[in-house]
Amino acid sequence: MSLSRLIIQNFRNLNAVDLELSHGFNFLVGENGSGKTSLLEAIFYLGHGRSFKSNVSNRIIHYDHDDFILHGKIDEAKHSWSVGLQKKRQGETVLKINGQDGNKIADLAHLLPMQIIMPEGLTLLNGGPSYRRAFLDWGLFHLHPQFYSEWTALRRLLKQRNAALAQVRQYQDLLHWDKELVKLTEKVSQMRVDYATKLSPEIEKTCQFFLPELEITAQFYQGWNKDQDYAEVLAQGFERDKGIGYTMIGAQKADFRFRANGLPVEDVLSRGQLKLLMCALRLAQGEYLIQQKQQQCLFLIDDFASELDLNKRELLTQRLRESQSQVFVTAITKDQLHYMDWQNNANDVLFEVQDGEITPC
Ligand SMILES: Nc1ncnc2c1ncn2[C@@H]1O[C@H](COP(=O)(O)OP(=O)(O)OP(=O)(O)O)[C@@H](O)[C@H]1O
Ligand SMILES: [Mg+2]
């Protein structure tokens, strides 16, 4: 799977972009503010129906226009898909896959799995558990056909339970919700445990490649004490939950934590090491998907050269090349790309980005 063509209209400063893309490495070189990150953001939007930068889509639509349009052609060995997404200033989203309406963003996301590696992505390691849950759930979304519907149902039920907490007087009145909640929570948690158990050795191996001086371990926390029955946890926490107005304990609090030589990574690693670890995690997860599903994964790499020494940049390039993935890499100058050996690979394409115009060179 690769994105072979991308058309962008009125997305930030990218007013009219039409690119034939390489299924290997695509390099984007340009000055500050030229539109490099915006191109990665557009690809990300096409695969998620949202931005990695802003929750307000009106900020993404070009100042002088009322909508943005993204159109992509996705090629696989035997199929190809044409996907289109239009976002209007009034909030409406129009999504088409092969010219057909009635698709969901999740259908689009299944077609375009992608991992993004960017400086802001360090929140995966030093931000709250929600970033790591999102990381874990990405893999489940792509690998486990049931996960998305179960997790959506669980979140819906939690909302209903939270609203009901204000109405009920005794725990008996909640039992009706909790029976279903326990069932769904156990299912979702089991899927996460199984996936985390399989992914962890892959992560640990990839970390040895990038950070051989450290012993990195990954551990999943389901969100409540694993020796306790979740039904009991809910019953015992009723008065507290009622007091605060929401369900404090459960799968919505799960975490996937990383340690270096037994200590929390965010406390002991240098910034460069954290960056390498983030890169190793995303690479390991993308590669695991490729291996399990025989489906490609895109890698979007923004401003990666900064803070990494030459040897590490080369290691990253080597791994990405071996995975035969489609990769998008931004840089301010061509010099920063030497370590990616771009001149010796026939499939590589270099684009120059200037004031929102993108041209191959
Ligand atoms: N809604 C919008 N409409 C038009 N232009 C916008 C909009 N939002 C942001 N911009 C502008 O788009 C330009 C592209 O920004 P982008 O972040 O893509 O640059 P960049 O090439 O990644 O730069 P850097 O090297 O500094 O990271 C910026 O000049 C920004 O001010
Ligand atoms: Mg940028």
TrEMBL record:
<dbReference type="InterPro" id="IPR003395">
    <property type="entry name" value="RecF/RecN/SMC_N"/>
</dbReference>
<dbReference type="InterPro" id="IPR027417">
    <property type="entry name" value="P-loop_NTPase"/>
</dbReference>
<dbReference type="InterPro" id="IPR018078">
    <property type="entry name" value="DNA-binding_RecF_CS"/>
</dbReference>
<keyword id="KW-0067">ATP-binding</keyword>
<comment type="function">
    <text>The RecF protein is involved in DNA metabolism; it is required for DNA replication and normal SOS inducibility. RecF binds preferentially to single-stranded, linear DNA. It also seems to bind ATP.</text>
</comment>
<dbReference type="InterPro" id="IPR001238">
    <property type="entry name" value="DNA-binding_RecF"/>
</dbReference>
<keyword id="KW-0235">DNA replication</keyword>
<dbReference type="GO" id="GO:0005524">
    <property type="term" value="F:ATP binding"/>
</dbReference>
<dbReference type="Pfam" id="PF02463">
    <property type="entry name" value="SMC_N"/>
</dbReference>
<feature type="domain" description="RecF/RecN/SMC N-terminal">
    <location>
        <begin position="3"/>
        <end position="341"/>
    </location>
</feature>
<keyword id="KW-0963">Cytoplasm</keyword>
<keyword id="KW-0234">DNA repair</keyword>
<dbReference type="GO" id="GO:0000731">
    <property type="term" value="P:DNA synthesis involved in DNA repair"/>
</dbReference>
<comment type="similarity">
    <text>Belongs to the RecF family.</text>
</comment>
<protein>
    <recommendedName>
        <fullName>DNA replication and repair protein RecF</fullName>
    </recommendedName>
</protein>
<dbReference type="GO" id="GO:0009432">
    <property type="term" value="P:SOS response"/>
</dbReference>
<dbReference type="GO" id="GO:0005737">
    <property type="term" value="C:cytoplasm"/>
</dbReference>
<keyword id="KW-0742">SOS response</keyword>
<dbReference type="GO" id="GO:0006260">
    <property type="term" value="P:DNA replication"/>
</dbReference>
<dbReference type="GO" id="GO:0003697">
    <property type="term" value="F:single-stranded DNA binding"/>
</dbReference>
<keyword id="KW-0227">DNA damage</keyword>
<feature type="binding site">
    <location>
        <begin position="30"/>
        <end position="37"/>
    </location>
    <ligand>
        <name>ATP</name>
    </ligand>
</feature>
<dbReference type="GO" id="GO:0006302">
    <property type="term" value="P:double-strand break repair"/>
</dbReference>
<keyword id="KW-0238">DNA-binding</keyword>
<keyword id="KW-0547">Nucleotide-binding</keyword>
<dbReference type="InterPro" id="IPR042174">
    <property type="entry name" value="RecF_2"/>
</dbReference>
